[in-house]
């Protein structure tokens, strides 16, 4: 793993925590996907810790990561000019498919309904 990728990952995670209550602007694909990689790594780490007998850490981590996860997901939707209400599709299993598609799309290059790209 190159230093640039690691730096980008760390910067994206810090950015997601710093912008946890920003549900209005946009987030690029890179920030969103680096956040998802971080979340998967944390989930695997905390699952291992729980498997050796320390309980409750997964619940606690999910609570800590809930707001940043929602905000970066909504900002990612904004980047492709979709309303944050699309996040409600995640309630259904089939709804994850269009969300995944939106998350993979390249963001609007210029100004859209949610502001300028970052």
Tally of separate helices: 4
- Kindly estimate the percentage of residues that lie in beta strands according to DSSP: under 5%
Distance between the termini: 25 Å
- What's the total count of β strands? 0
Share in helix: 55-70%
Mean pLDDT: 95
- Largest sheet descriptor: none
From the helix content, strand content and strand pairing, which structural class follows? mainly alpha
What is the count of distinct domains? 1
SSE ordering: HHHH
Q: Give the low-pLDDT segments.
A: none
Short description:
With 118 residues, the chain is an all-alpha fold. The protein has helices at 3-18, 29-51, 57-79, 96-104.
Description:
There is one protein chain. The protein has one domain. The protein has four helices and no strands. The chain has helices at residues 3-18, 29-51, 57-79, 96-104. Helix 1 crosses helix 2 (29-51) and helix 2 (29-51) packs antiparallel against helix 3. The model has no long low-confidence stretch (mean pLDDT 95).
């Amino acid at each position: 793993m190159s230093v640039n990728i690691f730096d980008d990952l760390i910067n994206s995670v810090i950015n997601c925590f710093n912008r946890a209550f920003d549900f209005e602007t946009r987030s690029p694909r890179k920030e969103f996907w680096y956040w998802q990689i971080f979340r998967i790594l944390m989930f695997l780490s905390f699952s291992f810790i729980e498997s050796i007998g320390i309980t409750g850490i997964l619940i606690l981590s999910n609570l800590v990561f809930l707001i940043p996860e929602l905000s970066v997901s909504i900002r990612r939707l904004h980047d492709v000019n979709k309303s944050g209400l699309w996040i409600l599709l995640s309630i259904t299993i089939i709804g994850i498919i269009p969300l995944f598609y939106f998350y993979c799309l390249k963001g609007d290059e210029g100004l859209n309904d949610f502001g300028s790209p970052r």
